[in-house]
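Lecture 7, part 2: worked example. A protein chain together with copper (II) ion.
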Amino acid sequence: MKLSRRTTSAGMLSVAAVAAAVAVAGCGSSGAPSSALRSESMKTFRQAVEAKTAPTTASAVEADAAVASTEGNVQRVDLEIRTTEKLKGEEQPRYVPVGATAASLKSWTGNIVVKKGETVVLTIVNTDNGKVPLEPGYRRFDEVQGGTETVDGRPITSAPNSDIAHTFTDMGLGINAPIPSAPENGTDTIVLTFKPTQTGKFPWQCYDPCGSGSEGWGAAMDTHGWMQGTITVIS
Ligand SMILES: [Cu+2]
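Predicted complex, written out as structure tokens:
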């Protein structure tokens, strides 16, 4: 099914309200802001992302994490992007571990645990056929960075902006994978291969405004375990 961020309703918000909506999880009911409000909300969003990008020490492995399974010489992490999960009553796109249940998702915060110095094969089965072009200033996220990517087995180095549904981006680890939209009623499978070379906690994020509220930067985009989380690299 097609999920869109186009579910906003009319209504005006103050700058403070927009900033607050961006700063906290969920803002599905907020209206489309004016361009002035929008640049304010973008600034707040960027500041929040930059603040979160600073790595911290991985002191403990959280119980809610998707821990990579080792297969030969590689670590496998299997995620899917669903469009049927509801955040505050509204369907929003969501990165989840493959096979996750409603019960297991209660504690899912998007934490992925891998080991330093070993190749990670991150497989993402995408069911979202929505297309949301990257915004000016975010276009570089159409390029594969920090590893290699295949889509349905075909190697790519970038994806057409008009075809992008999401990104999987970890600025701290320097990795980016554009996620092309799935075919109607189908899926596409993205495999990102990379090797983490430092330990720590590195926030990941989708940079394609696929949520609702604040021109697509709210709700799923602003909630851990939906369009953001953390890669924890252990030694
Ligand atoms: Cu997204």
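The pocket of copper (II) ion is lined by residues 93, 166, 206, 208, 210, 227 (CB under 6 Å). The longest strand covers residues 74-82. Keep this in mind for problem set question 3.
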